[in-house]
Design brief:
Layout: H1 2-25, H2 30-39, H3 42-49
Helix pairs in contact: 1-2, 1-3, 2-3
Length: 86
């Protein structure tokens, strides 16, 4: 019975820390992140949270696309150095 409480406490601490860390980087509230982590599991919650966009996306300096998170921009197709993909 004691092992169950230790496992449960470890599970909740892990879910809390992961939700706190990831909700700082992503556009998701802490409470929504903790809900995913506690109800599903911290690992499945991480995959769900990682699908949310970044709070401070780097953007594209060439076309002004502020939502760009990828290596190459989806609008102009350039990377940080200005090289076109392909």
């Amino acid at each position: 019975m004691d092992i169950t409480y230790i496992f449960l406490a470890l599970f909740i601490i892990l879910a809390f820390l992961m939700a706190h860390q990831e909700s700082k980087k992503r556009k998701i509230s802490f409470w929504k992140a903790i809900l995913f982590c506690v109800l599903l599991s911290p690992i499945i919650g991480f995959f769900i949270i990682s699908n949310y966009p970044l709070r401070n996306a780097p953007g594209c300096q060439w076309c002004g696309n502020s939502e760009n998170e990828a290596e190459y921009c989806g609008i102009c197709g350039k990377n940080e150095e200005g090289n076109l993909r392909g």
